Amino acid sequence: MSILETSDIIYLLKPYFSNELKRTIKSSKIVFLDSGLCSYLCGWNSGENLMNSSTSGHYLETFVISELIKNKRNNEDSLNYDIYYYRDKDGKEIDLIIELDGVIYPFEIKKTAKPDKGMISNFKILDGKNLNVGVGGLLCFYPEVLPIDEKNKSYPISVIF
Fold this sequence. Notes:
alpha/beta; six-stranded mixed β-sheet; two-stranded antiparallel sheet
């Protein structure tokens, strides 16, 4: 594992936890930094077959998170955020939490062009806690920024580039 991490093939995405969130799973999540290599190693020889598969959402999540990691590494002087994920013992998960200046921004990553409020329902985990939660949302294939509720928006995946 350490060889893969040192070689920048994988990244161990740390879980977000605080004293406010009691049921957090504290193990890191493996993220391949090259989603093409990951899909090839899993036997996907065609982008079209991968896009039509039931697992394509997982590859999209890997791609988005790996791009954020690479952006941060390549722009360390100007990008001062940390990234995490959240999963609790009940199986509730938030794909991505960006922490910047003491504020956390929760995001779900979905392979959809039809964003809806149900896709961010796990953000309720953060409500009523003593956490500074900023505007989060959904990263998806809808081409424009779109409000989902009073605090969250849908963003096109292209915003990470």
